[in-house]
Amino acid sequence: MGCAEDSILSITIVDSSIMSEINYKYRGKEGPTNVLSFIQKESGIASCDPNLLGDVVICWDRVVSDAGSLGYSEDEMLTYLLIHGILHIVGFDHDSELDAQAMEAMVSNIFQGFFPDNSEIVR
User: Fold this and answer.
1) What phi, psi does 14 have (nearest 5°)?
2) Which residues does 109 contact at the CB level (< 8 Å), separation at least 6?
3) Which one of 12, 49, 62, 87 has the fewest beta carbons within 10 angstroms of its own beta carbon?
């Protein structure tokens, strides 16, 4: 993915209440989303570690509910969201249909490395 081997990533798992606050503060959107990514170099804040790529924040309550509604285990859902969040950190997005397809293909490829028996990926 173009990252140095000594790259650092911050991963935080929060509940719906905290994710709602973060989602509103940084995106102006109500309610909890499942995952948010914050790229360190876009923050304008000097990091104490130059190898810090950014922060991925995952809402555990959404992991549980999304896994249940989509037929995945919580481990699978958490892994999917972590992959999705990391890809945002390294420059992927889903702003256009073409970008979304490329990102989804990358998520699916990485996800199947962890769960090879699961041929379908959630969106």
Assistant:
1) -125, 170
2) none
3) 49
